[in-house]
Amino acid sequence: MPDVTIIGAGPAGLTAARVLVQAGVRDVQVLERNPQPGGLPRFCDHPGWGVWDLHRFYNGPRYAAELVRRAAGANIRTNVTVTALGEGGTLHLSTIDGPEVLEGGIVLLATGIREKPRGARLVSGTRPWGVTTTGAFQEMAQAGQIPFRRPVIIGSELVAFSALLTARHAGIKPVAMVEPGPRILARRPGDLFARAVFGVPVRTNTRLVAIQGIDRVEAVVLERNGQCEEVPCDGVIFTGQFTPEAWLPRSAGLEIDPATGGPAIDNFFRCADPAYFATGNLLRPVEHSGFAALEGARAATQILRALRGELPDAAAAIPVTAGGAMRYIYPQRVILDGTQIQLFGRAVHAHKGRLRVMADDTLVYERLIKVLPERRISLTLPGAALAGHKSLSVILD
Ligand SMILES: Cc1cc2nc3c(=O)[nH]c(=O)nc-3n(C[C@H](O)[C@H](O)[C@H](O)COP(=O)(O)OP(=O)(O)OC[C@H]3O[C@@H](n4cnc5c(N)ncnc54)[C@H](O)[C@@H]3O)c2cc1C
Fold first, then answer.
1. Are 109 and 11 in a shared domain?
2. Same domain, residue pair 191 and 214
């Protein structure tokens, strides 16, 4: 068994591997189910990668290649799917040479996210060809297989704009971008940008009701203010609505936070079984690659401490809960060892108000805040103010 096994060769897993190798850990293994390492960026052939973590501009595939290059020294095994987690770090693998079991050692889960497909979105209508998620569309486009010419894009998170960029690169002109809410979820003026630069209208307050077509998509039915309209098109790209790829920890019975959809961790990135650590987008949907990569580095730093026997007993953790308009908060447990505590969360909806942290019944932090649901809320609490308390709650009033 390697000293550390990382599941997932995306930005978080590869960055963690680099930090561990550079710190002198001799046997670091990265397991990746795809034929190539690199994670999601491999399929996003547009710029916008590497700025935060590598301080350079890359397109997705180049960024992925650079992460792999920097993780030299780690044993990256591709075409290996981890199928189950056992107690104390035992891993069940499916490889092209057959099943395999790895026992013992520290395991870092970095399996990322996936987009909600059509089935999970309960969209009615027929089941024609030409309905994809952004990830599947980008994978097809990279392989030169263009599934449609005039799709509609459903959703307006940043990833919808990634779909727009890929479409442009592939010579495809989407018919519209459709957002059920009153404004786009990505930063403005993304909507003006979509219309002016790509010639794609953004329809807000609009819902996809049905997909029509027998063999191929022929139209979608959109609803706005109770009025339905049939819009001709030849494909549908579902974007966003991400969920952590958490079936491994879930089926192993590790605690899952229903609010994030990812494994609950402590402030040392440890899951309920301290043989398992978790990092990157698996922790919550969805951050950009730079944040996920730096999170991988932070998790690796804690793993180094675990290997040296320096981490405090996991049983000493106290719970952190979210209240008011907070959708979630993580880490979900913290050990108050006198050092600063960093917490991250998101709001349920666009909100202007007061963010406060209660340690038991004592107010230990507050600030005025204006947030959108897709923006991260970060807060750093001074360790000294928290000593002796039994719980923390983060409340958005
Ligand atoms: C369409 C799209 C466009 C994006 N555009 C940008 C952008 O322009 N800039 C930016 O900074 N960010 C962008 N992002 C976000 C970025 O992709 C993520 O932040 C980043 O990839 C997260 O890294 P990660 O390592 O946590 O997960 P991932 O990159 O998802 O990597 C997880 C890896 O784990 C592997 N895996 C999962 N389960 C198993 C298993 N059981 N066994 C073995 N391997 C497994 C997966 O195959 C995958 O390779 C985009 C995301 C999407 C979906």
1. yes
2. yes
**Do residues 4 and 107 share a domain?**
yes
Please give the Cα distance from 73 to 27 (Å, whole number): 9
Nearest CA residue ID for atom 45, ligand 1: 8
Probe ligand 1: pick from 138, 289, 374, 376, max atoms within 8 Å of CB?
A: 289
Q: What is the mean pLDDT of residues 268-277?
A: 96
* Boundaries of domain holding 367: 317-397
Residue 224 has pLDDT above 70, yes or no: yes
The finding on whether 75 has its CB within 6 A of some atom of ligand 1 is no
Q: What's the domain count of the chain?
A: 3
- Give, using CA atoms, the residue closest to atom 13 of ligand 1: 288
Final residue of a structural domain among 240, 256, 284: 240
Write down the H helix ranges in the chain.
Answer: 11-22, 60-70, 118-121, 134-142, 158-169, 190-198, 247-251, 289-307
Using the mean position of ligand 1's atoms as its centre, give its distance from the Cα of residue 359 in Å. 35
Instruction: Determine which residue's CA is closest to atom 22 belonging to ligand 1.
Output: 289
**Whether residues 247 and 227 fall in one domain:** no
Nearest residue (CA) to ligand 1, atom 52: 159
Asked whether 254 and 271 are in contact (CB, 8 A), the reply is: yes
Distance CA(32)–CA(16), nearest Å, equals 14
Q: Convert the pLDDT of each residue in 308-338 to its tens digit.
A: 999 999 999 999 999 999 999 999 999 998 8
Expressed in angstroms and rounded, the spacing between residue 377 Cα and the centre of ligand 1 is: 21
pTM over 0.85: yes
Give me the chain's average pLDDT, please: 93
pLDDT of residue 384: 83
